[in-house]
Amino acid sequence: MKPMLTFLVFASAATMFAQSNPLSTELKQNYNQVKATLMRGADKVPAADYSFKPTPEVRSFGEVVTHIADVQMALCSAVTGENKKADTTKNDKASAVATLKASFDYCDPVYEALTDATAVQTAKMFGRDRTKLGILDFNIIHNNEMYGYMAVYLRLKGIVPPSSEPRGNMGKMQKKE
Fold it and tell me: What CATH number should be reported for the domain holding residue 52?
């Protein structure tokens, strides 16, 4: 009976913590969702297509990936009071994916440390005071915007974007048809 009681105490504590930090908890969930989608999108593109540009005026796919990493690193470092930049000079697949992963590795503890109480603290973003919640939410918004571009590049190369992949019962139903 003691193991079950211990489990219930920890489960209740975790639930109470999540309920006492609903804003930062939801922000972390959104971050982790876009993180997984971006990493899967970056992984799905063959190395040869990292130099692909739909038109000469836009970034290559590799440049899109390193741009995401660079902005993300800048925004998360603003929250910590640092001034970090990602290396955007190497846009081949191995380098770009490593740069994107490094930006997530840097941002993960920044999001994890956020609570609703610390979310209202301010930091500088682009020269003006913003809440830490606002800065990290802006990062998620930017990541989702850039995923929209990424999805177009994938479609142009005949690759199904991660967010359009079959999932769960719908995926099973689609495969049978």
Answer: 1.20.120.450
Residue 57: phi and psi, rounded to 5, are: -80, -10
Mind listing the pLDDT tens digit for each residue in 3-17?
655 555 555 545 544
Burial of 12 (0-12, 13-18, 19+ CB in 10 A): exposed
pLDDT of residue 4: 56
Residue 55 located in a structural domain: yes
What is the C-alpha separation between 89 and 134, in angstroms, rounded? 29
Boundaries of domain holding 88: 27-162
Q: Is residue 33 part of a domain?
A: yes
How far apart are the C-alpha atoms of 93 and 24, rounded to whole Å?
33
The answer to whether position 59 is within a domain reads yes
Question: What is the model's pTM?
Answer: 0.84
